[in-house]
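Minutes, project huddle
Topic: does the predicted pose make sense with zinc ion bound?
PN asked that the exact inputs be recorded in the minutes so nobody has to dig through chat later. Recorded below.
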Amino acid sequence: MIYASYHNHTPLCRHATGSPEEYVEEAIRGGLKIFGFSDHTPYLYDGDYYPYGVKMLPQEIEQYVDTVLTLKQKYASDITIHLGLEMEYYPKFFDRLLEFLAPYPLEYFLLAQHNLGNDMLPDGTPDVSSFTPTTDEKQLIRYVDQCIEAMNTGKFIYFAHPDVFHFTGPDEVYQEHMRRLCIAAKKIDLPLEINLQGVTEDRFYPNPLFWSLASEIGNKVVLGADAHRTSRVIDLPAIKKAEEMAARLHLQLLTDIEDRF
Ligand SMILES: [Zn+2]
Ligand SMILES: [Zn+2]
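Predicted holo structure (tokens), as shared on screen:
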């Protein structure tokens, strides 16, 4: 059973349902003692580009922070609530983002590299999505290089679905590059997340090939609900499956990461 959960969304990202308060009540009902909100961060791009339907808008950060802090206070005797964000590392806009977020009492950031490069190309069109199946080794290398650079900023508390890049080429090529990612995470002691949304929706991640590598390298591992609806706050069948995989592969599953705050 898990008692700490750090990867949960709110409707501000526009692809999640259920009020944040319902998530908290569900978490308490499910026996969680620690519950973190980590909705998709806003980003401050150049020009007109904005991935609507994916992230909250910059002007919504205030509302997000207020909502979570209000719940934190209201439910303080029942559960510890943390205020976080899930974010990609887009080098061109990353410092600008950190500066924008600095005034807010955010406690943690989860790394999740959904897209490559700076999300958009210089002409304002989207760059490669990590979800798009590809056999192109160059794109896999881009993903891994970008993730290593991201981890080494030291800004992240853990790495959400590190296996989200959908490489469909040869296993040896996948392993060669993902090994570098796992080694880089190990070097800075950054936990990697087995994503329960992927488990329950039978997505291409968690990728067993990736998790065999993580086992071999000795990475620390956490489970992440990635809840986008109340019924996923505690998803027992998914938790059970993930725990079975972790046991089978002898992964070092952490029960919480409170010592990292
Ligand atoms: Zn999402
Ligand atoms: Zn997420």
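Observations noted during the meeting:
- The longest strand covers residues 80-87.
- The mean pLDDT is 97.
No decisions taken; revisit at the next huddle.
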